[in-house]
Input
Amino acid sequence: MKHMNSEVKEERTSNKKRIDLFLVPIVLIAAFLNLFKIWTDEYANAYYTAAVKSMLQSLHNFFYASFDPGGYVTIDKPPVVFWIQTISAKIFGFHGWSVILPQALAGIGSVLLLYVLVKRTFGVWAGRFAALAMALTPIVPAVSRTNNIDSMLVFTLLVATWMLFRAVRTAKFGWVLAAFAMIGVAFNMKMLQAYTVLPAFYVFYVVATKINWKKKIAFLTTATALMLAVSVSWAVVVDSTSADKRPYMGSSQTNSVLELAFGYNGINRLTGNTSVTGSSHKQPAQTQQQTASSETKQNSNSSADSSQSSNQRKSSSSQKMQAPGGGNQNGMFNTGNPGPFRLFQKGLSDQISWLLPFVIFSIVGLFAGVKFKGPYTTKQKESLFWLAWLLPVAIFFSIAGFFHQYYLIMLAPPIAAFAGAGAVALWSMYKQHNGWKSWLLPGGILTTAALQVYIMSPYVSSIGVAPIAGVGALGVILALVLAVRKQRKNSLTNYLGAAAMVVLLAMPAYWAMTPIIYGGNSMLPSAGPDSSSGMGGPPSTATNSKQSGFNGMQPPGSSSGNSSSNNQMQPPSGSSNGGQMPGGSSNNGQMQPPSGSSNSGEMQMPGGSSNNSQMPNSSSSKSSSSKRKSGGMNAEVNKKLLNYLTKNNTGEKYLFATTDSTSAAPYIIKTGEPVMAMGGFSGSDPILTVSKLKAMIKKGEVKYFYLSGMGKGGQSDVITWIKENSKEIPSSKWQSTSSSVQQGPSGNGALYEITLK
Output
């Protein structure tokens, strides 16, 4: 007990010490990478931003995280992060930056937490290097600069980690309960993804606590029960509420939060069974449907502005996504082929894997000489925790059937922790001439530099040869010099070691800045010279790097005169297959719509809209705008359409109805008016039936419908009924110009009116 009390006193004393001056610039770097120019992102991820707009309007919408102000359907994630975003928007006003701010601060907070976690056990220099590695991991600021959930999720899990470490140090059961309860909170951010850290929590508590097995089992069982209770608390309340008194649970097929958690947002991510069309079937990685998830749809939208010149299109019958550098890789959006080396494949490695070889050497050094039965030092116990976080998550990404690049932020904390702890440990072994262990430092530097050259090689056209050659040459030279000078102890050797660390962090630092330099993608964030496209491949030929994702999309009613080729998804430079999306056939290297579409050559969005002109937005895309209109739609709605709908509204609850969230979101954001996404996010949710729609029309809740296709899943009958029982509004009354034609996957987009007596 005296020992535990002394540890607590020591911790309190250390907290009163002066601020670490070396930490200040690290935090400033993190703040710059996470915060600079977020005010230029007007919409952020529009799907989620529209929900915040709706949640600001009533406590009912706030609690359920309703996508629309009318409370028709929710978004496809739990509400905790969006509660925080809504509070931020309430305090600072509703802006793109105000909904991004919580995630940006969470990214900075994660850097500070990692410093605290690593410093206490591995030393101050280990904490500094770990914090810097976390700040400079490219996918971390890329995600933190958006209103996507993952940055806040990682921060919450690091808070839980701090609680667990404190529980072990103080032997207080209350901290164990707090740690597992915090994982339950994280579950209400992104569901089962929060549970990927559980192996680390269980293993560490079992190994690190000095209590008997009976108590360990009892404590862990109780803590797990609390975690599960917190996890399902919101779900139980929602699922227990009568369906007619709450919004439909978006992206579920049974209007259930639990089904959403363990299906769509759970097991289906691992298996690749991502159908949300009402029929469940497994889809191989290379043939996943575009309607797989909210992120899938967002990414298909986000690539519309990456137009390529015609000489970059090469036809091929292959249906594989082209990887950077010309190598074929299966999987949507460049997530590579499942296998043990997936994280080293192009498209993923430049997001997270810059320091992985050094981490592997660090793990070898930190666990060298450890006996299975112990005893274990504190350093070895905490190293085991980070390893038990790293391995299961890495295995998931290596075998998962469906995920997106920005999910990789889950690997950032253990990689950064091992980079910091390993740098100090390997340096100590090197200086002490500790046999074979002394070779781990130069070996780690050499292999890491080699991997970084491999990662950068597909981007030679955009970053030049110099940085690639520089990293390779300096890495080899410094590793060899350190190997030669292994027996010498002087200041020059210290400088060489520091220089090696700088070299290994130089290009990750540049990659982390690319969302600022080239523009980011708030719907599917990634880092790299192509960060605005969100596809994780070599840079596109888009002329305006400040534009994100969809600014090249031509909205319904547009007369900008852009040819279809300018709005079609093009393959990465050097592609032999055109970067084809599953479900389509090769056509001159252009992204193809699903089979059956009449809109050949255009990339089709889930919910029946193509990237050419499927949303009733403004009539022009202003490439010189100072605001970055990301989020899948331009910042200005089609004013002529809006004026027509407003003028002719006779008390209806909904301004208009449409197939999915793509058309609805910009109008919700700009006006705050209820707009009904009949099929939920992707247009495939079985929310509406013909009889229910008839009842809504008779009650005077909706009379205008903007349709751009036949709908999906259970919505096809509804769309057919609307077209058969309505009158079409002449385009001259609502389109920006009477000559504009909107190409949909099954015909022209059109506005319909239905009134029933």
